[in-house]
Batch of 2 targets.
Target 1
Amino acid sequence: MLRPLVSIIINNYNYGRFLSETIESALNQTYKSLEVIVVDDGSTDCSREVIASFGTRVLPLLKENGGQASALNAGFARSHGDLVMFLDSDDLLLDHAIERVVSCWEPGFAKVQFHLECMNVDGRRLGIFYPSFRDPSPPSDVRPALLRRGWYSGPPTSGNVFSRSALNAALPIDEGKYRLSADGYLHTVIPFYGGVGALRAVLGLYRIHGANAWHQDTMSIRRLHWYIEHGINNMEALSVTAAKFGLFTPDKKILHLRQFQYARARLVSLRLAPKEHPIPGDRLFKLAMGCIESIWRSDEFKSRRRQVLWVAWCLCVALLPMRFAHRLILWWSVPRSFPQPLRKLLRKLT
């Protein structure tokens, strides 16, 4: 593919305080065959004034609020690129990101993914990466991993560039199910439409500011239940897409339990709020065993020590008195509630 047009679609809702910097990071790419589309999903802050300040340098798309999936669907419909990137409006691209992606693109790819480094609200880098460099790069064909356990190692929204042909096949995203974290749908279904290229390089920055979908400052049962439902929706999308190719997957709730992050969330939900738990039939022992099975099944854990520590965590959360289990749950869900030295120790251990 010679000098393809690349569309960078920035989806924004009330992130006016970050938006200007995000747009600049898209416009300042060393790769120049690109268009920058900014989709504002009904913001009520200064976002639209920020977008207007860029004049004709960007293509604005101003719409009523409908959620992230509706913003991605609308932005894609407006775009023309051979390759398409969805950039969250609180994240940043490094100036050579698109150049690197285009240079490694191969025919048959559905997407290329790269690493993001976390930064704080002020833009200071934190030395935390998505995906972790401890995780292996996925093979080009990740469908076997998806069919076996519903998961492969990859970054959030801003760490992916997609082929237009793959998006044409996979979109539109269900706007009712994916008001938030629509990238979960894309991460799950896009690999059925082509290969996955993985660059082991940091090409973008992921901002943590306490209002992210995946990074919260407090433990919220409502958020935990949303996370579980989001995973179930992803597994349903996986099953439907696989069926189009004549491929079989287990029941979505079984496949959901094969992923440690979701099995762990179900265990925590049932322990903290059993009467409100969203999945009937779940039992503590069953979920603890599901967590342990998902740990041994996963290639996420690089050492036997990490596996043993997480097995112990699951058993303690399931069996210990609540005052002890709750502390362990906080360590997982709100690590910033612990003193910095202890956080560093826990990070090394796990």
Target 2
Amino acid sequence: MSDKYGSKVWFIPDGYYPSTSSGTQKSHDAICVLNPGKKVANISITLYFEDRDKMQGFYTSCGAERTHHIRMDKIKDKNGNTVPMDVPYAMMVESDVEIIVQYSRMDTTQAEMALMTTMAYPL
């Protein structure tokens, strides 16, 4: 398989991490990564906001020919900061090799939980 599937830069314009959840499932966003290539993908994530400075320094990796589900409620930046709750944000996902990125949101703020998923926008 070619190492040229996917893109090195992806955008997700609609992120949100609510502070309330109902039941045992916790609301969260996730970035789902597929690395079909033969090299490990080193990934950095930048968060953008409406009324505050961007947050950088979120790093992770995805093995060669593997998947990785990055829960945004669990990732921390290089200084130990987490994704802020109850604040809309957008994301830029950058990789040193081509990857495929999908975004999912599990919303359990109500008893009738909802799951939404979409492909991120590649550059």
